[in-house]
Amino acid sequence: MTSGQSVKNPPCTTDAPSQIGRRTLLAAAVGGFVCATPRARLLAAPAEKRNPAGAPAQNFGSLEALLARFAKSPGLSASFSEEKHISLLKTPLTNSGRVYFKRPNQFARHITAPFPSSVLVDEKQVTLWDGAKQQILPLPKHPALAQLTTTFLFLLAGDLPALRRAYDLAFSESDAGWSVTLAPKSNALKQLLTSLTVKGRGLRLEHMTMLEASGDRSETRFSDLNASRRFTPAEVARYFAIPPP
Amino acid sequence: MRQRLSRYRPELGLLILTALLAWYCSANFRLETSIAELLPRATQPASLIADHLLDSELTRSMVLSIGPAKGRVDLPAAEQAATLSRSRRVAQSLSKKLEKTPQIAWVRSGPPANSEAAVYDLYFPSRHALLAPDSAALAEQLSPAALARAAADLKRELAGPNAPLVRKLATSDPLMAFKARLDALQDNGSDALTLSDNQFVSKDGHAILFVGLTDSALDGQKQGALLDQLGQLFRSEPEAAGLVLERSGFNLFSADSQRRIESDVNRVVACSVLCIACLFLYLFRSLLTLLLASTPLVFGLLAGLAACLTYFGEIHSLTLAFGVSLMGVCIDYPVHLLNHNGLQRTPDEAVFRGVRRGLVFGALTTVAGLSTLGFSGFSVMEQVAVFAAVGLLSSLAVTLYFLPRWDRSQASALRARLSSRLAAAAARTVQRPAPLVIGYTLFLTVGALGLAFSHWSSSMESLMPMSKALRAEDASVLSRIGAPGKGQFVVASAPTLEGALHANEALGAALELAVTQGELPSFQSMRDFLLSDEAQTRNLAALAADNTQQHIRDALTAADFNVDSFAPFFAAVSSPSKDAKLSYSALAASPLAPLVRRFVSQRENEFLIVTFLPDVALPASLRTTIKQLPGTHLVERKALVDVAYVRLQDKTRWMLLLAVATMGITVWLRTRRPGRTLAVLAPALAAPAFALGILGSSGQELNLFHVLSAIVVGGMALDYGIYTDEALASRQAVAASLAEDPLGGALLSISIAATTTLFSFGPLGFSGIPVLQAIGQTIGLGITTALLLVPVSISLGNAANQRAKSSP
């Protein structure tokens, strides 16, 4: 059985960014979306723990129900493998690394291979590290960026109205699992992103597809996931920092 | 009434002339403090440039830091955040108030508005024109190996956190020239500051403001007033309690110096005036006499100042300080004349003529001696020569013409008694010349030995050491904002901006090499913001070349890229657009103008571009390289000032000898007798040497003002010798007809003059400021020595006269 629902949203009020603003927006978009993925994936972790065989423990029936479960996750850690299909390149690029999430609002995504880099997100700023230089993007200065990154906080909090302000949302569910597709509403986000699709089974986040406006596509698979991860202060200082451990 | 007015016509004339001079000096007063004036004329371009830059945008600015006294790290996290918010609010409120202050030209509390958009608008279209700063770097960047690295870097960036930006721009910019420009601009700034609510904030939680000054930072008076106002504005902030305001800027030191000097001088002047008034009241029984004695002094000071302002258009602070010291000589003239006038109940014309001769000769000799400074080749010394000549002669003229008209003082029994006793003492001393000769030799020997072992200062800062507390405050703020230092920079100069940019690029290449070789940690250059038109044209031409484009295609293909995706790039470099090159006018009109303002300056018909170096010792090889680059000058402010200072100090020491020699020749030309010449010169030869020798051997570091004061001592001591000589001559001619011995009168004049000088300058010796201390101690010790050596002069003069009398 497949059930689907499309969600009508209020009009987006985000202003289009300036050209240079796009730089920060684009940069942050990477951080934001990638970080969003582990968060969503976090939510699947408890189910994975309870049901190692991978069978869905339950059908959620609605996006609201799914988000309500996601919101209960205390933290997450996982390994990921990303494949980027870029039209500029004849063959896809691959990245692998670790992601961490700590409630209520701390994300860290550390690429370990082939080249180290990191993205940190909190409610105030996005920090990018390309292996050599660090760049901090304050969110209050970049409203569009703030909207994008807080999307994932809203996702984890189960704040559907907040998500609807920025995206058209589509939820579907079948025996194979569930799927949530986020389509940006603002022109600013549309210039970057066509859609973001997150798939999982039960509370286990398995796969994320990001379709960029340029036509490029990123496929991310998650493994070694702990969706009920609690961090000690030492771990917080270690994992949510640059340079990464 | 008319008759009465007519009688006082000369006085009215003097009054009007004095008032006119005062008005002229006040209207045209321009105090010069530049170091260039301390160097030989027009031989030091680096000093001229440094001098210009020291009163430019570079120094006309301040950095203000507002934050907790203890520092953020000592506070709990919640308190840190609250304190930071409060510091930010206070800074923003203060910023608004400062913007309304006339003495403030601009205030920056955060990056310029729309700076990010401006960066894109300026630098994305011109990314290829700004690809490489010089032809060597361009050749390297377009080599097959470098292009292969660039393609690999592009691939890596596409996998990293900046991928969306890079991906968006890659088809138009596969060499990532725009990203390189952004990185260069970011490196040029400091990473010590972050932004909090669009306000610059340091890592230890202080809100930072950058402030531009309307007036010169070297104007101590105006800057002192501004700093007071700044302090009041900060304290009036409702949320300022518990926060501290710290400041950095050149103006802190100029204001502090001015305050300290003013405070000391005011104290000394009050003390001196009181002592001199008491002395005059005691000896002349009249305060009017003090007023009369001051008139030539004031007139001489104004005349000297007016002459300098007219001839040079300005007066240097050193000249002014020296000029004020010189007034110690001027006051001797009226003292000598008034004393002699009042000594005799029936003033003898012959004695008066003798006194007048002595005054004229003394003044002319001093002027001749000091005029030698005019040939030193140093601008400031030329000013001193002009000031001395005009000031002393004007003072003498007023003394000789007006004082006899005004003096109504009665013969004083006290002065007559003192005069007689001094004459008797002199007579006794003359009878035993041996102890005098031994004593004199001792003075000379001690002076010479002391001078031989003296240590001379080698730093201009020794004249006016900066307050340690201010230095600490300044350093603390500079470290907080990650400033590279402010004492060392290289200037590229040319008659055109294009030429200066070109020179700056050559300099940048040399400095880049030094960084690569580990000789220099970093530097901040204008070339990150703008290249010369020639360099931009060269970059565009290189990219338009077919073989370059083929190399780029090959590199992209080898790195697994679809070359066809980069069609926009190849189209752009094959036929560059109109805005493919960046001009200075576009940059200056953009929101980035405040960031580039500190790099560019214009001096007369010359453009200057400054490159900032950290305060580190530069290796000799790098210095040589910079020196050999056309149009570039390494400016090390402290070293430059110190070299200038030591040169001037050495030169002045020689000038002291030359001045004494000139005085000696002048005396010889008048007396034509070696014995009389030696008698006149005796105090002037030994007093300055003894004063400097004693001070030097006491462990004190001698400085320029010790030498200048020694010249003044020489002038006054010579006057003592001349007055003695004239008195001896008068005594020989008219002694029989006089109730009082002219020598006694002269000795009393000399004693009063010396006491007046001691009262005037002696207290300066107790000042905490080395400049004032040097003047006070040298003049105090020197004049005391000169006074003690007057008997030697009498003895030698007497012997010479005896010899002349006995010779056929």
Main attributes of the structure:
heterodimer; A: alpha+beta; twelve-stranded antiparallel β-sheet; 6 helices; disordered N terminus; B: alpha+beta; 32 helices
Q: How would you describe this protein?
A:
The complex is a heterodimer of chains A (245) and B (808). By secondary structure, chain A is of the alpha+beta class. Chain A contains 6 helices and 12 strands. Chain A has helices at residues 19-50, 63-70, 143-157, 160-166, 187-190, 233-239, and strands at residues 3-7, 75-85, 93-102, 106-113, 117-121, 125-129, 134-138, 167-174, 177-184, 193-201, 204-212, 217-226. A 12-stranded antiparallel β-sheet of chain A has the order 1-8-9-10-11-12-2-3-4-5-6-7. In chain A, β8 and β9 form a beta hairpin. The relative contact order of chain A is 0.25. Residues 1-57 of chain A have low confidence and may be disordered. Chain B starts with a helix and ends with a helix. In chain B, 47% of the residues are buried. Chain B contains 32 helices and 14 strands. Chain B has a 4-stranded antiparallel β-sheet, with helices on both faces. The radius of gyration of chain B is 35 Å and the shape is elongated. Chain B has 808 residues and is an alpha+beta fold. Helix content of chain B is 66%, strand content 8%. Classes of the chains: A alpha+beta (245), B alpha+beta (808). The A-B interface holds A 18-24, 26-27, 29-31, 84, 86-91, 93, 95, 111, 114-115, 117-119, 128-131, 133, 136, 138, 140-141, 192, 212, 214, 216 and B 114, 116-121, 124, 155-165, 167-168, 170-171, 182-183, 186, 194-195, 197-198, 560-562, 565-566.
